[in-house]
């Protein structure tokens, strides 16, 4: 799959010396949904702002649809729609006029049929003549998406689109994103909701401390999450795994009071029954047994711990 956004060794250092981005490189594939996870201060919004031309990078290069965002700014920006975190709408303007005005800003000719399709897609058609100040917070976020789609972009950035909305509206927004993807729109989603990333993304990226720590196919991550641990608490501490148990994927945990068995829960045979028998045969007395499984949240915490600002 070809890349529609290419980020190469991007750096951003603000006055005062704070380095918000550190040699960030990223290729975003045409038609995918990429979820970017990270704590506050990780650099997600800074990265999006540079790609969208709102902030200037200290060094590095960004291209969108093959257009350099500096040398060919207009061509690159025309391909991008941005839905910011902040809701900033003209309160006395109607929904219809708000969206049509955004289309005109990009030099697009009037297309009432397209605007109607966007508003219907976002369940805003019945609100087209309402002033934006009359709308709920969730509906205002829909207007922001409609504004971002007004000029028919190929890439849509959603910066925390479901922040502050209730569960029902969040699920409706997810349906909207699925629909946009089905129409060929590439979506880059920043979110604090692990569930949102798991549900919506084709790939998941994790940022922390101005760096991209991981970018993986969601399916690969989910496969990795299929690995479980069987933690066996022992009556007597051990220094190492007995030689008789060397054929198992075992490690010693918690100062020798535990034996940890790593296995794939998706396999037909986990080997647990045989292991427990062999443990007894090796003279190890069990006090308790429990299972543990990593989640996407565990991976996120491991990669970002200590980096939140």
The CATH superfamily of the largest domain turns out to be P-loop containing nucleotide triphosphate hydrolases
Across the major sheet, the strand order is 6-7-8-3-9-10
Order of helices and strands: EEEHEEHEHHHEHEHEEHEEEHEH
Structural class of the helix and strand makeup?
alpha/beta
Determine the mean pLDDT. Answer: 89
The rounded Rg comes to: 25 Å
Counted beta strands = 14
Q: What is the distance, rounded to the nearest whole angstrom, between the alpha carbons of the first and last residues?
A: 35 Å
The CATH topology of the largest domain: Rossmann fold
For the record, the CATH class of the largest domain is Alpha Beta
Helix content: 25-40%
The count of domains is 2
């Amino acid at each position: 799959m070809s890349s529609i956004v290419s980020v190469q060794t991007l750096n951003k250092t603000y006055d005062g010396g704070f380095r918000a981005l550190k040699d960030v490189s990223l290729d975003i594939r045409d038609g995918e949904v990429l979820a970017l996870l990270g704590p506050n201060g990780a650099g997600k919004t800074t990265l999006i702002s540079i790609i969208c031309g709102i902030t200037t990078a200290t060094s590095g290069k960004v291209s969108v649809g093959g257009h350099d965002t500096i040398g060919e700014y207009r061509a690159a920006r025309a391909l991008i729609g941005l839905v910011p975190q902040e809701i900033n709408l003209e309160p006395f303007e109607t929904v219809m006029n708000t969206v049509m005005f955004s289309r005109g800003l990009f030099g697009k000719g009037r297309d009432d049929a397209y605007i109607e399709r966007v508003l219907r897609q976002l369940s805003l058609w019945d609100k087209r003549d309402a002033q934006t100040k009359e709308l709920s917070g969730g509906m205002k976020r829909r207007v922001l998406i409609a504004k971002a789609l007004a000029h028919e972009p190929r890439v849509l950035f959603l910066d925390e689109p479901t922040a502050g909305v209730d569960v029902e509206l969040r699920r409706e927004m997810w349906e909207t994103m699925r629909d946009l993807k089905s129409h060929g729109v590439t979506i880059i989603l920043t979110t604090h909701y692990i569930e949102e990333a798991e549900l919506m993304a084709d790939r998941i990226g994790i940022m922390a401390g101005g760096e991209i720590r991981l970018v993986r196919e969601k399916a690969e991550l989910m496969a990795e999450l299929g690995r479980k641990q069987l933690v066996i608490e022992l009556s007597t501490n051990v220094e190492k795994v007995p030689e008789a148990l060397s054929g198992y994927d075992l490690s010693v945990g918690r100062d020798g009071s535990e034996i940890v068995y790593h296995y794939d829960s998706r396999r037909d045979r986990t080997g647990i029954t045989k292991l427990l028998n062999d443990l007894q045969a090796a003279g190890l007395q069990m006090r308790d047994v429990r299972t543990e499984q990593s989640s996407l949240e565990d991976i996120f915490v491991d990669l970002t711990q200590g980096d939140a600002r």
